[in-house]
Amino acid sequence: MQELMRTIENYGAAWQEESAEKRLALLTQCFAENGRYVDPTADVSGREQLSAHIGEVLLTSNGRVQITSSPVSHHDVVHFTWHMVAPDGAIMVAGHDFIRLDEDGKIAHLAGFFGDPPPLS
């Protein structure tokens, strides 16, 4: 469980890191070399593309992502929640991430969702 926590902590730290070099170093520790990241606005593969995507989001939103839950996992699948915080502390968006880990415990595939699913009507 400690290894999983370290993976999630490094991933979360990458979403707060303005330095492209430091961000890529964090992703190297937690994201598979050819890992895939998808959310409603992006579909990128590889650490370098994910680092560039994160940098663009940080620049254009001026927000920082914070992990808001402990990860829950079974087999090679993990779920955790997060939110993006504006400089004034307001929550800009919250969401859920679902990841699949590779054999080394790094993120091989991450699917991010914004907000909670709507209730059944």
Automatic annotation (TrEMBL):
Ranges for domain SnoaL-like come to 15-109
Its transmembrane ranges are none
Supply the Pfam families for this chain.
SnoaL_2
Q: Which Gene3D superfamilies match?
A: 3.10.450.50
Q: Which SUPFAM superfamilies match?
A: NTF2-like
Which portions of this protein are annotated as coiled-coil regions? none
- What is the name listed in the Swiss-Prot or TrEMBL entry for this protein? Nuclear transport factor 2 family protein
Q: What organism is recorded for this protein?
A: Ruegeria atlantica
